Amino acid sequence: MNVDPQDYPTRPLAALPSGSCDCHVHLFDAARFPFAPNRSYTPGSARVADLLAFESRLGIERIVLVQPSVYGTDNAALLAGLRELGLHRARGVAVIDPHTATHAELQALHDQGVRGIRLNLQVRGERDLSVASAQLRRASDVVAPLGWAVQIYADLDVVAGLASDITRLDAPVVLDHFAGARADKLLGQQAAFATVVDLVKHGNAYVKLSAPYRASRQAPQFDDLAPIARALIDARPDRMLWASDWPHTGSASSRDGDLTRIEPFGREDAGGALNQLLGWTDAAALRQRILVDNPARLYRFAERPAT
User: Fold this and answer.
1) Which tens digit of pLDDT belongs to each residue from 231-284?
2) Of 121, 171, 295, 304, which is least packed with CB atoms within 10 Å of its CB?
3) SS3 109
4) Nearest CA among 303, 295, 306, 297 for reference residue 61
5) Which residues contact 237 (CB under 8 A, 6 or more apart)?
6) Residue 60, CB half-sphere, CA atoms under 13 Å: how many?
7) In sequence order, what are the residues at sequence separation of 6 or more whose Cβ sits closer than 8 angstroms to the Cβ of residue 52?
8) Which DSSP helix (H) or strand (E) runs through 280?
9) What structural domains and CATH numbers belong to the chain?
10) DSSP code, position 66
11) What is the structure's pLDDT at 1?
């Protein structure tokens, strides 16, 4: 099943500030860029033209492409997307092997618009904190000299377990999807959430207020996410980001390993999710921070591309 931009009918209730950024989207094009044979699922197609149609409906002007797990460490599709979008409006988050990547390879990625790498602990099911900590430290050591960030996708308790490591890293860390918090599990994870809020308040972590359908079962309003979002925003509004998670891939827990089946994308209403953000941030200056200033600083949109 391919993506259909018309699946997202809701438009933002208010005009977004100029330079607003969607900090987490994926591209899939198996015809041009074959998927890794050891992937955990097979998605449909989601190409640049589809992405631009989607973002245009929302009023988004800047985009951060995130390498999806189905491509492994082959960032060819990501880099092609950056070239097609142009570095005036796009940056990338790659996946690399931090033990084998050379400085020349990293510099080449940097010159093409990459400004971070991703550790997808969620898809791999990594819950061993000693292993995750070692991976995190190595990733930071490799990318910090370039001024990149390390992006982590993990459950809340894993993020909380890594908090002390994150505070000591030289590279900033970006925590995907409400830092892994789940509204339906929060009652039993109050201590972990408090640890993450403290990390955000005093550390070098950013949080994506993204993919509410991964953090809540109360679609489409996601009212149970409001306390989580407001606690994170109140902790450090200068460390909050927004993202759609387009084109809305499925969850690892729902997959059966059948790679011949094309997994359908979710029909999630990103415009409605943006309206939730507008409700959580009733001040124009705060929206400017989350949608424009914070991503511009983190992903360094002011930098001119290499010539």
Assistant:
1) 999 999 999 999 999 999 987 767 778 899 999 998 888 888 888 888 888 789
2) 304
3) helix
4) 295
5) 286, 289, 290
6) 28
7) 85
8) helix 270-280
9) 18-298 (3.20.20.140)
10) E
11) 46
